[in-house]
Amino acid sequence: MENRVYFRHNNGTSISEEICFYDFFDEYYYDNILIPIQQRIITNEKDYTGNGSLDEETISEYEKEVYDIHLELVIPCKNDPDLCRPYLSKKARQFLRHTGQWEELMKLENHIIHVDFTGYEAFVLSRLLFFLNDEQIAERINSFLPGRTFDDCKRFLNDNPNCKAQKCPIAIKVLMKGPEKSVQDDRVLRSNWITLFLQRQCGGWFHPRYSKSISNHIDSKIIQLLKPYKFFNRTSGDVVDLTFDPLGRKFAFGCSTTQDDYNREGNLVICDIDSDVATVLTDHKIIVNENVFYPTVSNVKFSADGLFLFSGAFDSTIKVWSRSGHLLNSFRDLNGKIDVMVSHPLNPKILSASSHDGNIHLYRLNENGLCASHVKLGTINHNLYGSAMAFGNHLLNHLLLVGYENIDESKYLGTAVVFDIMTETFLKELKTENTSHTSIFAHNFSDYFVTGSNTCKDGKVRVYTAKDWSIIIECYSSQKDINQVTLSPCLRYLTSSATDRSTYVWDTRKFDIPLHILHHDQTKMFYPDDENIEDLDSGTTVSFWGSYAHEFITGGSDGYLKLWDLGNNQPFVQNLVEVNSAITSACISPDHDLFIIGESIGHVTVLSTKGTGLPSCFNINIQSSKTIT
Description:
Blueprint: E1 20-22, E2 45-47, H1 56-67, H2 90-95, H3 103-106, E3 112-115, H4 119-131, H5 134-144, H6 150-159, E4 171-173, H7 183-201, H8 208-224, E5 227-232, E6 239-244, E7 250-255, E8 268-272, E9 277-281, E10 286-288, E11 291-293, E12 297-302, E13 308-313, E14 318-322, E15 327-331, E16 338-343, E17 350-355, E18 360-365, E19 371-378, E20 384-391, E21 399-406, E22 416-420, E23 425-429, E24 436-442, E25 448-454, E26 459-465, E27 471-477, E28 482-487, E29 493-498, E30 502-507, E31 516-519, H9 533-536, E32 540-545, E33 551-556, E34 560-565, E35 572-578, E36 583-588, E37 594-599, E38 604-608, E39 616-617, E40 619-623
Parallel strand pairs: 5-39, 9-40
Antiparallel strand pairs: 1-2, 3-4, 5-38, 6-7, 7-8, 8-9, 10-11, 12-13, 13-14, 14-15, 16-17, 17-18, 18-19, 20-21, 21-22, 22-23, 24-25, 25-26, 26-27, 28-29, 29-30, 30-31, 32-33, 33-34, 34-35, 36-37, 37-38
């Protein structure tokens, strides 16, 4: 320790009377606050301006607000001795712009090398300066500012002698530049332009808190103004899966086919919003004695960077396509039709699929879309197959949760299993009462997974925590065939949509009875009078969360897309659109400015604010590709 006094007391200053409240989130959960890894830190805290010291009068006025701040909102793991929140000086950060391919920096790939002092940390440091000397601060720094070192504090004070934190603090993480530009790069640039445009329209710069509020208000109004804009009706059958690319300018869909004279192409289509071209991809086909049969394409997914399109079909193959629709690769090492397929939410080169023989397949691709490795994660039981799958979020991206059903549909048996894709091993079988699982949902901002399971009479919705895979919420439902389960971004609402054309909504704080039951009207499908419609009808097949906490969207076999506000006692808001047949699938663009609806008669409709109610047809391009090697 140096003998000279580095920190100096400043007794003649006081905290500013104007305390800005940076409350960006309506709700927060302490266990899920993370060290920021993006350029901009958003923390749910009070931002303290001024140079840090308090006189007696100020202390009495602000004491409660100051000391009621929860440290977890700033420091995610205060009891973690390995927690590190390094601080680089301004000069060091300027030097980072000129490092090029500096080897020492490359060694720190995926490491956080700088975290700005937040307003709370600057305030705590100012109080330490006021009451303690250098040696006492060095001894107690880990208790008051977990993750910070004595040297971090010195560097911060060199940069900010008045002990003021930055109004918009940042964190810096080392990421190596990839070989190919992804559509995410364009999306970041586009988002910046959208922010600037919004500021201009609202009369200039405004605080991010109000920016978020204004954006949510605009988004909520936009979705109510969506009207039919484009359509496509040359499909092979029911539209069973829809997906947008990350930029929201291309979408693809897969369709079912019939095994009769009406079997035709149109089972896989990729559409470009900007060029108004729909490209029919015809390579999912079976040729027998010069007769061509087109199988059902059950799953379509874009990669996380938007460079690849994956399609899985009942011809026991998975195909990899470029964004423009050129066939790059075909995986033919599957013994059974593809029931479920999911692409990794972060790694664009990882794909997993379930085949009807019970195997779970894990593929890793190279940058050209060719297979770098293929692993079978195994089967649980020869009578069970994977019916629902979900990768974990950015915190749990090494986890894959799979729900199973019995091959014999009359037996409601199944389970749910967790795999580790990094070690390619089985981790755990969850407590499920051995019931059939039809839906799995991974929450984007927490360690929660949601499962929907069925018996012959009813269903159950369970929420598991990945910490120990215990059940933290279990809800009973009279629905006996669940289509989709979801958990709201704010973690307040749990939903279950089923074939009875209803959606159960529970408040996670009191989940013994449903908060709402959202009903759709009579189905547009025709069934014999003596049949139980719930056993045959698709019911409510679409459920999405909107732009703000309470906004929820459902679509069902009555042909309606409905908007709900779950925060109201009477949640129904309006019917967004009605189509001519049962809604079988839907997806919303990342910017929430486009909505795609797939129908049971094979129609696909694009809803947009540009729509006038009289949609125009996509220009059709039929393409048969040759594999690129």
